[in-house]
Amino acid sequence: MSAAGQIAGRTFAALAVPNYRKYYIGQIISNAGTWMQSVAQGWLILQLTDKNGFYLGVSVALQYLPMLLLGSYGGLVVDRSDKRHVLYWTQSSAGAFALVLGILVATGHAAVWEVFVLSLALGVSNMFDVPARQAFIQEMVGRDLIANAVSLNSSLMNTGRLIGPAIATFILAVWGTAACFFVNAASYVAVLLALSLMKKADLTPIRTVQRGKGQLRLGLRYAWNTPVLRRALLSVAVVGTFAFNFTVTLPLLVQRTFSDRQAGHYGLLMGAMGLGAIVGGFVIAYRARPSLGLLATLATCFGVFMTGVALAPNLAVAAILLVPTGGFSIAFVSTANSTLQLNSTEEMRGRVMALHATAFLGSTPIGAPLIGALVNATNPRIGLGVGAFLTLATGAMLIRSYRAQSLVSVSAP
Predict the structure, then answer these.
(1) What phi and psi values does residue 252 have, to the nearest 5 degrees?
(2) What is Dmax (Cα atoms) for the chain?
(3) Which among 53, 101, 289, 352 counts the fewest CB atoms within 10 Å?
(4) CA separation for the pair 410, 77 (Å, rounded)
(5) DSSP labels, 15-81
C-alpha cells in the first residue's frame, strides 16, 4: 500500500465500519442543515431586535440552558437506555422544532419570544441527544476506534459548518429566512434513515445502568476524583464558556466593527472557520493519541489565533485567521472528548459525556449573554479578546499540570 493509502486508511479507519459509515453520511446532511439554521436564526434575531447583541446571546443561551441545569440527569437517562432509541426521539423532535420555526417565519408570525421558546425546547432535546450521540460511538466502532471516530465526527460537524453557511447565504438571498428552517427540518430525515438501516447485530453491547439512588452524585464524584477527567472537564468549561461564542461575536463583528450588513459576509467568516475545523479534525483523526500535553498545545494555539481575529484590521484578514482558529478549536474539543471517553468506564460514560456537554455546551447560557452584554458595552473585538485570553490561560494551566504529571511519572519507582 502507498504512503498516501496508509495515511488515508489510518485517518478514516472508523468509516470501514458499516454502521458508523451510515451514521456518518446521515450526520453530514443533518449538520449542514443545523448550521444553516444557526446562521438564519442569528440573522433573524438581529433583524427582530435591531442588532441587539444581548438578545442574540440570550437566544443562543436558551438552547443550552437545559444542558447546564439538567445535563447530568440527561446523561444518567442515557446510561440507563438504549442509545439508538434515544436518538430516534431526539432527532425527530429537533426536526419538528425547525419545522415550526419555519412556519412561523413564513407566515409572518415570528416574534422574539417564539424563537426563545423553540430554542429552549431544542435545548431540552439536546440534553439527551448529545450524551447519547457521544456514548453511541463505542457501540458502533468499538473501543479501539473511539478516538478516530470522535475526531471524524468533529470533522463531520465542521463540514456542516462549512457547507451550511454557504448554502444558507444563498437561500437567505433567494428564498428568505424561512426556507433555511424548512431545509434543516428535512435534513433530519437522513439521520433517522441511517439509524433505521443499522444492523443491530453489529453493534457492540454496552452495559446499561439499573435504577438506583445516588447515581448522579456517584457520576460527579467519579469525574472529580479522576485527575485526567477533572482537568479535561475544567478546561472545556472555561473555553466553552468564554471562547466558543462565535454565533454571538462574529455576526456583530461583521455588522458593527466592519459596518457590513450583508449576511453573505457572516457566512464567509463561519465558512472559513468551518474549513479550518475540517482540516483540524482530520489531522487529529490521523494522530488519534490524546493526552494532556496535546490538549495544552492546542488550547494555546487556539488562543493565539483567536487573538489575531480580535485584532484583524478588516473582514478579509479576519476570514484568513479564522481558518487556523477553527482548526485548533476543533482539535482541542476532539482531543478533550477522546480523553474523556478513553479514560471513563462503560457504565459511567453517559454521565461523563453529559458533564462534557454541560461544560462545553451547557456553559453557553452563562457565556453567551455575558459576551453579548460585554460586546454591547464595548465592541466585538473585546468579546473575542476576553475569550482568547482565557483560552491562553487554560493552555498555561494544562501545561503546568502536564509537567507536574510527567515529573511524578519520572520519579515513580
Answers:
(1) -75, -35
(2) 72
(3) 289
(4) 41
(5) GGSHHHHHHHHHHHHHHHHHHHHHHHHHHHHHHHTTS-HHHHHHHHHHHHHHHHHHHHHHHHHHHHS
Percent of the chain residues past pLDDT 90, beyond the cut? 25
Distances (CA, A) of 252 to 109, 112, 256, 261, 308: 25, 18, 5, 10, 17
- Type of residue at 312: A
Return d(Cα 23, Cα 250) in angstroms, integer. 31
pLDDT tens-digit profile of 139-171? 888 877 877 887 777 666 656 666 776 787 788
Q: How many angstroms separate the CA atoms of 237 and 286, rounded?
A: 26
Q: Report long-range pairs for 305-311 (Cβ below 8 Å, ≥24 apart).
A: 306/243, 306/384, 306/387, 306/388, 306/391, 307/385, 307/388, 307/389, 307/392, 309/384, 309/388, 310/381, 310/382, 310/384, 310/385, 310/388, 311/381, 311/385
- In sequence order, what are the residues at sequence separation of 6 or more whose Cβ sits closer than 8 angstroms to the Cβ of residue 259? none
Quote the pTM value: 0.70
- φ and ψ at residue 97, rounded to 5 degrees: -65, -40
Q: What does the alpha-carbon distance between residue 203 and residue 9 come to, in Å, rounded to a whole number?
A: 22
* CA gap 195, 41 in Å, rounded: 27
Check residue 259 and give left, alpha or beta (phi > 0: left; psi -120 to 50: alpha): left
Read off the amino acid at residue 345: T
Rounded average pLDDT over 205-211: 65
Is the pLDDT assigned to residue 413 strictly greater than 50? no
How distant is the alpha carbon of residue 312 from its chain centre?
25
Contacts for 166 with CB less than 8 Å, ≥ 6 apart? 267, 271
CA nearest to 113, candidates 59, 61, 52:
59
Residue 143 burial (CB count, 10 A): 12
Task: Write down the pLDDT at residue 92.
Answer: 95
Rounded to the nearest angstrom, the gap between the alpha carbon of residue 187 and the centroid of all alpha carbons in its chain is 18
Please check whether residue 324 is in contact with residue 217, taking contact to mean a CB–CB distance below 8 angstroms: no
Q: Which amino acid is at 2?
A: S
- Distances in Å between the Cα of 359 and the Cα atoms of 110, 167, 211, 234, 325 are 31, 30, 25, 7, 20
